[in-house]
Amino acid sequence: DSKGSRSYTLRDTLEIVDELNFNSQKAKHELSDLYETRIKRMGNAGRNGGEYYTPRPLIRAMIKVVDPQIGETIYDGACGSGGFLAEASEHLRRDDLSAIEWATLQRRTFYGQEKKSLAYVLGVMNLILHGIDAPSIRHTNTLTENVMDIQEADRHDIVLANPPFGGGERKEVQQNFPIKSGETAYLFLQHFMRKLRAGGRGAVVIKNTFLSNTNGASVALRKELLESCNLHIVLDCPGGTFQGAGVKTVVLFFEKGSKSRSVWYYQLDPGRSLGKTNPLNDEDPKRVRGSPAGAR
């Protein structure tokens, strides 16, 4: 895009925003939809927003399985534009919440961390537009924290995340993790496992090669996941789920504190090719085929 067309889009957006009455829930909802659409379009155009955009139908399906409750804390250590936390807030919001429950939802439920400045700003704004006035999102690099220093007070009931893949993390960053790897997602997965309380539930997107790679880090990490958590579902996502990424992914659903017994392997099969003009929708996650894989 030229600078002129970008400013034109921004001006259009600002004019729409200017007309909204922020005192009404309907207006807030309209603005949050508009905002999400803009982030999604950034991704589809190959610009920065795409790094931080997970398809909302996939997020909603993950949240439905994990089923957060009021009073539980929800954490995303690679929160990007805040999609997981924002959708979790929609899942938890009800008209009959008490004043105490509403205060809990506002102040003691959503926790996130994000390294990149643009993503951090997008995420905070997204949560505010979803009615969370003071989201606990920190602008920090999660991977610089030594996972062995995580205390019980730092842990959460639920982890929802789609950490960045690839990477090539520096040796000094790898020192913060028992299983050393240059693969960014492998370090995040170790972090997430340790951020869960006993009995806590996780749903994390990761490249499907995690299931089959034979290098030392992959084998060690799979072993740790199976032994420290009950990995009960692996959801295989079709190609095209993440537009522009060209990466095949799976979602790992696990519970902290007991060994894996039997793992169910599901394939999400929408019955069509996914792409920019034919993205994942909310009906697609209902079309899954599954079988017990057995803990390996």
UniProtKB/TrEMBL annotation:
Top-level lineage group: Bacteria
Annotated EC: 2.1.1.72
Annotated DNA methylase adenine-specific domain residues: 27-287
Any GO MF annotation of the entry: N-methyltransferase activity
Keywords for the protein's UniProt record, in alphabetical order: Methyltransferase, Restriction system, S-adenosyl-L-methionine, Transferase
Stored PROSITE patterns: N6_MTASE
Ranges for region Disordered: 275-296
One Pfam family matching this protein: N6_Mtase
Gene Ontology biological process: DNA restriction-modification system; methylation
Matches recorded under InterPro entries: DNA_Adenine_Mtase (IPR051537), DNA_methylase_A-5 (IPR003356), DNA_methylase_N6_adenine_CS (IPR002052), SAM-dependent_MTases_sf (IPR029063)
Reaction(s) catalysed by this chain's protein: a 2'-deoxyadenosine in DNA + S-adenosyl-L-methionine = an N(6)-methyl-2'-deoxyadenosine in DNA + S-adenosyl-L-homocysteine + H(+)
Similarity comment text for this entry: Belongs to the N(4)/N(6)-methyltransferase family.
Protein name: site-specific DNA-methyltransferase (adenine-specific)
Native source species: Roseivivax isoporae LMG 25204
